[in-house]
């Protein structure tokens, strides 16, 4: 279970958010939303431990994540704005490298299979730099299908995806939640989940869309 | 842990193979700087023999600096660094893998090429041998120490200049003992003492630099 207690983040002299607290338990999805610049990405990076919060702490299974960095990292899958793909590596190579770094041993034919499932048939062995934005996102998201981590933190996973890929990703998320996994994501669209529990958290002071 | 270490090395070597221009830049820089001196000074063999260790070492130092900028920058830009920070292995192990791969493509070629360049300076076989040995021990130390600077200046504007200011002073001991060993050997004093010091620097750098680099990367990536 992920527990956030009284989290505050100050960047420069600007307070992005303060007093944030929530829990995400098994089979729950947390949908973070808020206007541009409200600190969604910062919050997600703080949840991963990439940013040290100014105050408060993030606990994983009742233990602060600072004190169990590697154990926590083994149970976490984070996909940020940047896809983390190497331009000069092919889709398959990118996927294999990402999985091996995460401590998974994935046979190569399994990687081919997963990329085909992500709708990249025929593009598996092209270098990532020639793929379109959406295709690159699909390669990055292919990790979800191989991951055994219970906690997924996804920053804007739907951006750049076409309708079919959005549906596929929603299915993958629903399956993960149904298995008892946890998901935290930011997106500006509604997340449709039939099973499991969807929690929502709004950051920022403006209603969405007002300028 | 060893798996991740190997994965990083294989990935970086593969990337270097696919983008050879970056690697060749460093190598050509070294070759050209070293070759400029005999051309500029003229065929004064005594002078050339005398300055050879210093020239080789300064050129190796600058070539190593030149390659540093790219060490973490591309990973930082495309998000691969974030994934490394969140990998369930000690970051210092991954850093060591990256530095080793970096040395294999930017440092080792300099070592292998140095005998050929030594001919321009009329160096004896024994001196060339010592030169290769000092470069073999010294260039990994340069890469390790340089990695700290590269990590500290990651994402800063004008990082290239700053990294030189940070790292060059730390390179001085390596330069002194590296060039000193060759000079001592050539003058018949025996460079064993210098070589031991160089080895000690390498060991110390291999132990401490990955930890320092890992800490610096966590700060820079915030």
Topology:
The complex is a heterodimer of chains A (211) and B (222).
Chain A: E1 2-11, E2 14-24, E3 28-34, H1 40-48, E4 55-60, E5 63-64, H2 69-74, E6 76-79, H3 91-101, H4 108-117, H5 133-146, E7 151-155, H6 163-178, E8 182-186, E9 197-203
Parallel strand pairs in A: 3-8, 3-9, 6-7, 7-8
Antiparallel strand pairs in A: 1-2, 1-4, 4-5
Chain B: H1 2-18, H2 20-41, H3 45-68, H4 70-78, H5 80-85, H6 91-106, H7 108-118, H8 125-152, H9 159-186, H10 192-220
Helix pairs in contact in B: 1-6, 2-3, 2-7, 3-8, 3-9, 6-8, 6-10, 7-8, 8-9, 8-10, 9-10
Overview of this structure, please?
The complex is a heterodimer of chains A (211) and B (222). Chain A is of the alpha/beta class and 211 residues long. Chain A folds into two domains: 1-75 and 149-206, Rossmann fold (3-Layer(aba) Sandwich), CATH 3.40.50; 86-148. Chain A has helices at 40-48, 69-74, 91-101, 108-117, 133-146, 163-178, and strands at 2-11, 14-24, 28-34, 55-60, 63-64, 76-79, 151-155, 182-186, 197-203. Chain B has 222 residues and is an all-alpha fold. Chain B has one domain. Chain B is 86% helix and 0% strand. Chain B has ten helices and no strands. Chain B has helices spanning 2-18, 20-41, 45-68, 70-78, 80-85, 91-106, 108-118, 125-152, 159-186, 192-220. The radius of gyration of chain B is 18 Å and the shape is elongated. The mean pLDDT of chain B is 91.
């Amino acid at each position: 279970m992920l527990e956030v207690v009284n989290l505050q983040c100050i960047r420069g002299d600007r307070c992005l958010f303060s007093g944030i607290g929530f829990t995400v338990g098994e089979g729950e999805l947390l949908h973070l939303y808020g206007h541009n610049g409200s600190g969604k990405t910062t919050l997600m990076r703080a949840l991963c431990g990439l940013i040290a919060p100014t105050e408060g702490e993030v606990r994983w299974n009742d233990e602060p994540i600072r004190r169990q960095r590697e154990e926590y990292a083994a149970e976490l899958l984070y996909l940020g704005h940047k896809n983390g793909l190497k331009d000069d590596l092919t889709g398959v190579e990118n996927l294999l490298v990402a999985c091996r770094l995460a401590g998974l041993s994935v046979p190569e034919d399994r990687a081919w299979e997963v990329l085909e499932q992500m709708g990249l048939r025929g593009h598996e062995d092209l270098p990532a730099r020639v793929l379109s934005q959406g295709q690159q996102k699909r390669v990055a998201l292919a990790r979800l299908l191989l991951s055994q981590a219970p906690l997924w933190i996804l920053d804007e996973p739907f951006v750049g995806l076409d309708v079919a890929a959005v549906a596929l990703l929603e299915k993958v998320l629903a399956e993960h939640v149904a298995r008892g996994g946890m998901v935290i994501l930011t997106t500006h669209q509604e997340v449709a989940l039939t099973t499991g529990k969807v929690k929502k958290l709004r950051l920022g002071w403006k209603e969405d869309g007002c300028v | 842990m060893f798996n991740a270490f190997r994965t990083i090395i294989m990935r970086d070597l593969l990337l270097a193979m696919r983008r050879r221009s970056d690697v060749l830049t460093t190598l050509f820089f070294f070759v050209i700087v070293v070759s400029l001196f005999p051309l500029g000074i003229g065929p004064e063999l005594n002078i050339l023999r005398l300055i050879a260790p210093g020239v080789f070492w300064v050129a190796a130092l600058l070539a190593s600096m030149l390659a540093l900028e790219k060490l973490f920058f591309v990973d930082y830009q495309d998000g691969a660094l974030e994934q490394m920070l969140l990998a369930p292995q000690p970051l210092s192990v991954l850093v060591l893998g990256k530095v080793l791969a970096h040395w294999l493509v930017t440092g080792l070629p300099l070592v292998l090429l140095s005998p050929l360049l030594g001919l321009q300076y009329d160096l004896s076989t024994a001196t060339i041998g010592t030169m290769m040995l000092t470069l073999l021990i010294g260039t990994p130390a340069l890469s390790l120490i340089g990695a700290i600077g590269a990590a500290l200046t990651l994402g800063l504007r004008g990082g290239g200049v700053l990294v030189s200011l940070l790292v060059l002073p730390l390179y001085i001991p390596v330069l002194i003992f590296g060039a000193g060993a060759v000079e001592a050997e050539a003058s018949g004093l025996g460079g064993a003492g210098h070589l031991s010091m160089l080895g000690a620097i390498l060991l110390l750098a291999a132990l401490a630099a990955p930890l320092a680099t890992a800490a610096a990367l966590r700060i820079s990536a915030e």
